[in-house]
Amino acid sequence: MRVSLFYHIGIGCPGRYDAMASSGLFFKDGKKRIDYILVYKKSSPQVEKRSTFEKNLRAEGLMLEREPAVTNSDIMFVKIHCPWETLCKYAERMNIRMPFRYCGNYFKKPIIYWLPRNPMKLDKEALPDLEETDCYTAPFSRARIHHFTINNKDSFFSNSTRSRIVHHVLQRTKYEDGKSKMGINRLLNNGTYEAAFPPHEGSHKSRHPIKTHGAQNHRHLLYERWARWGMWYKYQPLDLIRRYFGEKIGLYFAWLGWYTGMLIPAALVGLFVFLYGLFTMDSSQVSKEICEANETIMCPMCERNCTLQKLNESCIYAKVTHLFDNGGTVFFAIFMAIWATVFLEFWKRRRAVLTYDWDLIDWEDEEEELRPQFEAKYSQVERVNPITGKPEPFQPFPDKLSRLMVSVSGIFFMISLVLTAVFAVVVYRLVAMEQFASFKWYFIKKYWQFATSGTGVCINFMIIMSLNVVYEKVAYLLTDLEHPRTESEWENSFALKMFLFQFVNLNSSIFYIAFFLGRFAGRPGKYNKLFNRWRLEECHPSGCLIDLCLQMGVIMVLKQMWNNFMELGYPLLQNWWSRRKMKRRGQSMETKISLPQWEKDWNLQPMNLHGLMDEYLEMVLQFGFTTIFVAAFPLAPLLALLNNIIEIRLDAYKFVTQWRRPMPARATDIGIWYGILEGIGVLAVITNAFVIAITSDYIPRFVYAYKYGPCTDQGCLKGYVNSSLSVFDLSELGMGYSGYCRYRDYRAPPWSSTPYEFTLQFWHVLAARLAFIIVFEHLVFGIKSFIAYLIPDVPKDLCDRMRREKYLVQEMMYEAELEHLQRERKKNGKQYHHEWP
C-alpha cells in the first residue's frame, strides 16, 4: 500500500501496437500479444510430453500458436498469449498489486528524506513517453475489479507482469501423470524444449527518434538512455529497468549504482592521501636520509650473486613508498572502515525506499518448487510441508549432515590447493631473485627486486585465473552433492562456495606479502632457509609496503580488465559466430532483418546459468580489494570507481543487446551478498590495523619520534633511518668482505656484550604495535556500531507514510465499496420501479 510510479505507455495508441505487430510481437492476427516463447526441435523424441504439456496449458487458459523458424527447418517456436480472463485469475492468485482507482491528493507536499529519495530519476525530456501518475496499489481482486484503474485492458498489466504470470503457469502445469511431473524447468532439463523466454519488445535500435511516441519500445528506450556508452555520466532509469527486467535485476543495478556513487567520496579521499604523499615526497625526512646516505653499505640481500649496495640506491623505492605510507594512511584506514559501515547502512535505507516504491513491502517469496534432482533422490522419504500441507520428498538429517561434511572437506581441500599455489610462487621468488641479481641486462640486475616481484605477481595472476576455472567446476560438483531442496538454496550454497574459493585465491598471496614476507628471514650470518637451500626473501630497505602495493595494483587492474573483456567480448563472439553460421547456410542480410522478434531473440545468448551470481561476485570481490588492504593502496577506491562506471554500461549493453530477455523475477534484497559484505567490512578493520601496525613503518616512526628522537619537537624523525638499521660484521659472512654493513632490524651491534640480540627499542616498537592494533580495532568497531545505531534501516518519514497510507487505503476501500453499493441500489431501484404494475 503506497504511492507508486506507473508508466502508462502506449495507452490508447494503436500505432504502437501496429508497429509491434509488424516486428513480430503479436500472433498472426495482429491482436494477441506474445507473452512467452517456447522453442523445441522437431526431431526431439519427447513428442508425447510436449503435446500433453501444451494441451494442459490451453486448459489453464493460455493461447498457443506454432510457427517454424526461418533460418532452421528443425526449430519450431510456440508463441504463448495470456488472455484477459486468465491474467485476472492468476493476478488474484499471485496477489499482484495493481493501481487503485482512487489516486490522489492525500499528500500535498513531497516527502523529503535525509538522503535523496531516488537519485536515479528519469529525465522527462529524454524519456517523453513515460507519463507518471501517483496511485495507491492493492492486491488485485476480480470481485473488486471496479476499484482498479483499468483504462485499457491491453496495457493494464505490464509486459513484465504478463510474462511473470505466464511463467507461473508454465512452472505449475503437468506434462505427465504424477505429483512431480510438472514445470517447464524439468522439460528444459530433459530436452523436451530447447529454450523458454519472454520476447524482447522489438529491436534495441530503431530508425524512429526517441521522441516518436507511436513507434517506441522499452528496449529501444533502455538502449538509447541507458546502455549506450554516451550515457556513462547519466543516472540509471531504475524504474524503467525494473519495469522491463523485473525487480531482481532492478535491485542489482540499484545496488551497483549506489555502490558506485558511494565510491566517489572514498576515491576523492584516497586520491587526496596519494597526492599528499606525492607533494611531500621530496620533503620527507625518511626519504631525504635514504637518498643522502652515500656511505651507508647495506648487507647482501641474496645468498650468492648479490653485491654490496649503498642505501641511497634505494632512493626511488623510498619515495614511492612514501606515496602510500605517509601521515594520511591511518586517517584513510579509519575513514574507509567508517565508509564501509555508512555504505551498508544507507543501502538498507535505499533498499527500503525501493521496495516501497516497487510494491515489495508486503511481498513474500512464493513457495518454490523442488529441484528435480532432490525429488529423484528422496522420492521414497516424505513428510508434510508445513506451508502447503501436502506430502513432499524429505532429506533425512544424517544424510544431509554427511553430505555437508563431504562438501566442507572439499572446500578445505581446494583452499589447501590455493595455499600450495601460493607456496609455489614463493619458491619461484626465492629462486628468481638469485637469477635476476646476476642477470646480464643492467636494468634487470640493478632492479632485481622489482623484477622478482613483478614476474611473481604476473605468474600468480595466471595461476589465479587458471584455478578459477577449476573452482567453478568443483563448486558445481560439491553443491550438487549436497542435493539442495530448491533452486534458491542451490544458488546460495553455490555463491558462498564461489566467494570462498575466489576470495582465498585472490587474496592469499596478498596476505603472504602483507604479513609474512621478510618476517622470518633471520639476520645476516644466521638466515633462515627453505629446505635448507633457498634463503627466505627479505623486505626492501624501504620496507615491504611497496611489494604489497604492486601485488594489489597488478591483480586488481588485470582482474577487472579480464572481467570486462569476458563480460562483453564473450557474448559478442558467440553472437558473431551465430551470424556467421547463418551466412554459411545462405541466409542473406535481408533475411536477417526480416526475421521475427522471437527468432532474433533465439539467436541471442541466454542469461548465464548463474544468473546474477557472477555479477555480484565480481563486485563483492572488488569491495574486498577496496576495503581490506586499502591502507596499503589508497588508489583502490579510485580504480574501483573507474571500473564501475564502465561496468554499469557493460552490463546494461549486455542485458539489452546481447542476451535474451530474462524472466522478470521479484526480490526484496540482494540475498546472501549483504551478509558477505558485512563480513568483509569486519575483516577490513582487522587487516588494516595489522597492515598499519606490522607492514608499514608508521609505528616504528611514531615510537622513534616520541621516544628516541633527538629533537624536542614532537614528530621529528631526524636520524630515524640510522636508528632503524642494525650493524653487522661483514667478516662473519666468509665471502671475502671486511668492514660493517647495515640491515633492517633492531639488534645490538657486534661489539656489544650481547651481539645481535634484540634491543630495547625492538620491544618498545612491538608493544606499540600490539597496543595500536587493540586501540584501532576497538575505536573503529565502536564508531561503526555507533553509526549503525544512529542510522535506522527505514527512514522515519517512510515509516510514517506507510502507516498513514495503510489507514487511507482502508478508508478508500470503504468509500469505494459504499459508492459501489449505492450505485447498485439505484440500479436495482430503477429496475423495481420499472417492473411495478
Provide the low-confidence segments as ranges. 1-22, 104-133
- Main beta sheet: 4 strands, antiparallel
Instruction: Report the end-to-end length measured between terminal Cα atoms.
Output: 49 Å
Please provide the count of β strands. Answer: 17
Structural class: alpha+beta
Mean pLDDT, rounded to whole units?
A: 83
Strand content of the residues, in percent? Answer: 5-15%
Shape: elongated
Q: Can you characterise this structure?
A:
One of its GO terms (molecular function) is chloride channel activity. It is a multi-pass membrane protein. One of its GO terms (cellular component) is plasma membrane. Keywords: Cell membrane, Glycoprotein, Membrane, Transmembrane, Transmembrane helix. There is one protein chain. The chain is of the alpha+beta class and 837 residues long. It is built from 27 helices and 17 strands.
Task: Write a concise keyword list for the protein shown above.
837 residues, alpha+beta, 4-stranded antiparallel beta sheet, 3-stranded antiparallel beta sheet, disordered N terminus, Anoctamin_TM, transmembrane, Anoctamin, Anoct_dimer
Short description, anyone?
Helices cover 56% and strands 8% of the residues.
Fold blueprint:
Layout: E1 3-7, H1 14-22, E2 36-41, H2 47-59, E3 63-68, E4 75-81, H3 84-93, E5 97-99, E6 132-139, H4 153-156, H5 159-171, H6 184-189, E7 195-197, H7 218-227, H8 238-245, H9 247-279, H10 285-291, E8 297-298, E9 309-310, H11 315-324, H12 329-357, H13 372-377, E10 382-384, E11 391-393, H14 397-437, H15 442-446, H16 448-482, H17 487-515, E12 522-523, E13 526-527, E14 529-530, E15 534-535, H18 545-584, H19 589-593, H20 597-602, H21 613-627, H22 636-658, H23 672-695, H24 698-708, H25 720-724, E16 725-729, E17 740-744, H26 760-790, H27 796-835
Antiparallel strand pairs: 1-6, 2-4, 2-7, 3-4, 5-6, 8-9, 10-11, 12-13, 14-15, 16-17
GO molecular function, one term: protein dimerization activity
Transmembrane segments: 252-279, 329-347, 404-427, 447-471, 499-522, 619-642, 670-694, 762-781
Domain Anoctamin dimerisation: 26-238
